[in-house]
Amino acid sequence: MTIDALRLHSLQMPLVRPFRTSFGTQYVRDVMLVEAIDSDGARGWGECVTLGWPGYNAEYTAGAIQVIKEYLAPIVLGNDWTPDGVDAAMKVVRGHHIARASVGTAVLDVWLRRASTSLGDYLGATRAEVDCGVSVGIPTSESIEELLEEVGMYVDAGYRRIKLKIEPGWDIEPVAVVRERWPTIPLQVDANQAYSREHAHHLARLDEFDLLLIEQPLEEEDWWGHALIARACSTPICLDESILSTESAESAIEFGAASNINIKPGRVAGFLEAKKIHDLCLSRKVPVWCGGMLETGIGRAANVALAALPGFTLPGDTSASNRYYAEDVTEPFVLRDGRLAVPTGPGIGVVPIPENLRSMAVAVEELTSS
Ligand code: OSB
Ligand code: MG
């Protein structure tokens, strides 16, 4: 299968409400979709899940587009690929995992569509639907009432787990009031690296609220710090930003820096690496769950297929389309009984609605080998 063209669709999608985390606030999702086209005209899609600025990790959308144009497209275009082959070839570009994942997923999608195989079947999905959680930002007003209102809306919608974003100054109190209002709902928190090692005893105050986990309290590279936090807290520590590969996942587990892992296919450079991390964690009995990056229906379809693997025993940040967007670029993903259905069609199983793609696109660039 030879890839003749990569089309980069840059979209601007207004969020239904601002999403504030410890690293900043998003009002609009600027995201890029990669469309890969092979020499027979077969097409596939991959979502580049970078944010618009380097606040979550070092990547950002304009940088990813640059890396794809300058370095990844010349590797991929005009050559004959298998999914493993293209991911391995792109490793000559250090870092830039999200950019690599977007191209690799688009190529994988073409390949699977040609083989009439769904991504779920290809990865080894064992479920037809997945349990869904929801990630709740810090209210821009910093109002506890507003937080309770938003969480209440998601609980009423049927979400099976609530994740609260925290930062110093917005942690113990919001967690306490949400736990008091919903004494049994599965609850967890995500700090996005906002704390330091000195906060170990402060974070241990969260132990009384029966949380599933505390996600990424410290900086990405602070392995020892996370091990210290894990010793100080009885709540399990989960890593997101720190986990970039199967090797970093194994290091985190062996080192005692994490006892469960958020797998984001973009952050680990693609779905094949995501599956390897899943397989490792399953063999070690380390629970994993599928993270999210405010994906459109394209990224969501693929994430839901991954989340259907047997080791994904915790609900993921795989929420319904209407948690993010009034209108999605694909047919919307709709929550039923707190779950999303795994697409069954070939490849990722969904495509953009042409009219929506046109109206949401702010730029389209076509890269070809000639
Ligand atoms: O840290 O998990 C995170 C969104 C953007 C960047 C980082 C994160 C998130 C979320 C939202 O928590 C998850 C989602 O619903 O897509
Ligand atoms: Mg996170």
How would you sum up this structure, described in words?
With 370 residues, this protein is an alpha/beta fold. It has 2 domains: 3-116 and 353-368, 2-Layer Sandwich (Enolase-like, domain 1), CATH 3.30.390; 120-341, TIM Barrel (Alpha-Beta Barrel), CATH 3.20.20. Helices cover 34% and strands 21% of the residues. The strands form 3 sheets. A 7-stranded parallel beta sheet has the order 5-6-7-8-9-10-11. A hairpin with a 2-residue loop joins β1 (3-21) and β2. The radius of gyration is 20 Å and the shape is globular. The two termini are 17 Å apart. The model has no long low-confidence stretch (mean pLDDT 98). Magnesium ion binds at residues 190, 192, 215-216, 240, 262, 291.
Protein topology:
Elements: E1 3-21, E2 24-38, E3 43-48, H1 61-76, H2 83-89, H3 97-114, H4 119-123, E4 129-131, E5 133-136, H5 144-157, E6 161-165, H6 172-181, E7 187-190, H7 200-204, E8 214-215, H8 223-232, E9 237-239, H9 246-255, E10 260-263, H10 271-284, E11 288-290, H11 297-307, E12 339-341, H12 354-360, E13 361-368
Parallel strand pairs: 5-6, 6-7, 7-8, 8-9, 9-10, 10-11
Antiparallel strand pairs: 1-2, 1-13, 2-3, 4-12
